[in-house]
Design goal:
Shape: rod-shaped
Strand content: 15-25%
Oligomer: single chain
Strand order of the largest sheet: 1-5-4-3-2
Structural class: alpha+beta
Low-confidence stretches: none
Length: 121
């Protein structure tokens, strides 16, 4: 008779009882293991989403009418990060609008930014 091989939980090392293909002793261990394995990816995505959300809030706060001009410095002082946006729109003239969700901006010159709000259909 073949001897049954005892398996240990990948998270805590406890003996596994049940199906032969089981890898964890409990749902808690399975969730803990997967959270630990995926934490680097999850943290990166969470950080980028936080930056995008902050950028959107800053644009919305400075643009209550749907279209306004502000200094680039004003955005920077509030913590706006020009490296992050969700969408880019190029006009026929070659100008680029960069959007953080529905809130966008166009750099008019090195010191001035036009903030716009995209109409959501």
């Amino acid at each position: 008779m073949a001897e049954k091989e005892e398996k240990a939980c990948l998270e805590c090392g406890e003996k596994i009882v049940g199906r032969a293909d089981k890898k964890f002793c409990s749902d808690q261990c399975r969730v803990s293991y997967n959270n630990r394995i995926n934490s680097d990816k999850t943290n990166y995505v969470r950080n980028v989403n936080n930056i995008l959300g902050k950028n959107r809030r800053i644009l919305a706060e400075l643009n209550p009418t749907g279209k306004t001009k502000v200094s680039r410095n004003k955005l920077s002082v509030k913590g706006f990060d020009f490296s992050y946006h969700t969408d880019t729109y190029r006009t026929k003239e070659g100008a680029y609008y960069r959007y953080c969700y529905e809130q966008g901006y166009l750099e008019i010159d090195p010191k001035t930014v036009l903030i716009v709000k995209k109409e959501i259909k």
